[in-house]
Specification:
about 425 residues, mainly beta, 14-stranded antiparallel β-barrel, two-stranded antiparallel ribbon, 2 helices, 21 strands, about 5% helix, elongated
Amino acid sequence: MLKIRKINCILCVAFCLCFASVSAQNHLNSPYSRFGLGDIASRTSSANAAMGGVGLAFMSPTVVNFSNPASYMAYDSMSCLFDVAFSYKNHTLSAESTQKGSTMYFDYLAFGLPVLKWWKTTFGFQPFSNISYTINDTKVFDSNTITTSFLGYGGINEVYWGNAFKLFNNFSIGFNASFLFGEYSKNRTVESSDMLFVNTRISNSNQVKGFFLSCGTQYFVPIKNKGVLGFGLTYTPSIPIFSTMQNQNVTYFKTGINETILDTLYGTNNQKVKHSIPQSIGGGISWSKGLRYFIGADFTWTNWAHYAVDGVSDSLANSYKIALGGNYTPNPTSLKYISRITLSLGANYEQTYLKLNDIQLNKFGVNFGIQFPVLVKRSKTSFGASFEYGQMGTTQSGLIKENYFKATISVRVHEPWYQRRKLD
């Protein structure tokens, strides 16, 4: 007879905290989120982020590694895994002047468990992208001041269900089937300080709903007395998602805080729009020795040049990302607490999909993490902290450079899922 662990209370509390955080978060102003689908989330677990984002050839029984769904096969056949993370980010935007800001936000919630010996499953929730920007451009003509304002807000969220299957020894395949949903708005306003001037506002909002698929495979080759070599591949096909768009172009007079609408030049309601999500290909290689040492490297390429909204491109470019990192645990089975602490280190470099003023923006970051086991014998539950310092963009050609510091707190609950009742 099976005895189910009573973890419903923990999950309910965690879900409430996570969704409360999502609804209350106040994202940083990011001018570059004006393009494409906005700032695309890293979509990596805290354990992988602490290693610079390495994860395509990484497999661990205590980590939900959704970077490569084939890695779910590492779950214990008698245990479940619950993983949640939150982050704090502080950044400085530099151009002709500087702007500083900070915010706390939700990273992800994931839950993994075994189904059969050759089949493991995962489901979770995480942000997919975020849009948050306010840009003002002011020009003076004689005594008339013209202000062009760009305002965007909202984002897309992702609920996914992942599965991994063991085809033969040391070889597994997996997939994540995701549902994307959310709403975002992008608005542009041209206003004059002259009350007799006709102002213009273009408003565009989209409610996004669609399905998304990614798949992966992993293969590990034991090297006699020298550890294990790991290889991982991932592929995300180009699958269109759809949104319901509201678009309006109006002219108006403005007197103080009051507006008087003159005319609606253009307007659409509930128009179906197709978004061409780009395909992505990734490959990784790693070396590990037991649970003590791990070193890996990843390369991911994404075809953003073919991204379009209703057939109209957004002048984006193909992107790639290189990540290198690893972790070290002195002695995972030691009775000494300090010997069971895991240290992680990594770095990443990315040529982003943003190509502005003939300059394709680059991004790089360095990462450090530490994972603490709980003070319970034989428990694999742990909590951790990871840190990233990075830079994106440039001040050349009138562009904006961002320097940022990010701190992440995570909790990984790893406990028996069920036990067979012993007969007296």
